[in-house]
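fyi for ur records
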Amino acid sequence: MAISSLDGVIAGAQAPQPFIKTGIATAAVGAMRGYSLWYAVGNPGAASANAAGTGGAAVSGATAGAITRTNPGSGNSYLSRLAINASTAGTLWLIDRLWHNSGLSVTSTSAQGITPATLPARDGNGATNGANVMAAVEWSGTGGSGTPTVTLTYTDQDGNTGATGTLTGVTTPPVGTFEIFTLAAGDTGVRAPTSFIQTATRTSGTMHLVLFRVLAQIEVTSANIGNAIDALTSGMPRIYDDSVLQLVWFPSATTATNFVGQYIEAQG
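which gave:
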């Protein structure tokens, strides 16, 4: 049964899960560009770059790099509290990592075809159709020069094929750079990526496609001034079974940043 009251949230609160990440240096600040803490040193520990191939893999359950959590014995899980403090101002996203790939060429300017593995049933409706699912290029190895327009062809949340999303690459992206695609007008999600092409070489580095769903957002308005959201102020998003929770930071400056925070979910 779903939690439907604050008493239910309190009764179902799980043990707090702390996170600490240190010394995060970011690429040039820009629209639709964040920084994934997936590879950052701290707690939880850094993830290793996946080797799923261009077709990718669904990401589910206990995964290196993800915030620790367990599925409920019965009922559902919801965000109860998310707290963050950082040494610089910025905005933090809590996301569910759904799918990722490897093997994309950073130098090719030809279309790179993708036959993707199916998403796990954790889109905005708890299904595999891609509702509210976003796409990004994530760097696990520092990139080289080049600022191409990157185009992702995909099937959208309604099953329409041939939709395209774009982004403008940043030069020399450090590890963790998270370049988010702007989707086609009217689209609200990505069900399956089918092709990837860039107008110029990125020269070097290692990049991946990542499909994800945003669960919550929290702002650090001033350095070292913490903030928190709870079940009321977050809208109490559902955390589906086997969710893979990670953090994405949107910096206000390229200054190296330290983070400390806490995640709590309610189950019942």
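The chain is about 0% helix and 45% strand. thats all i got for now
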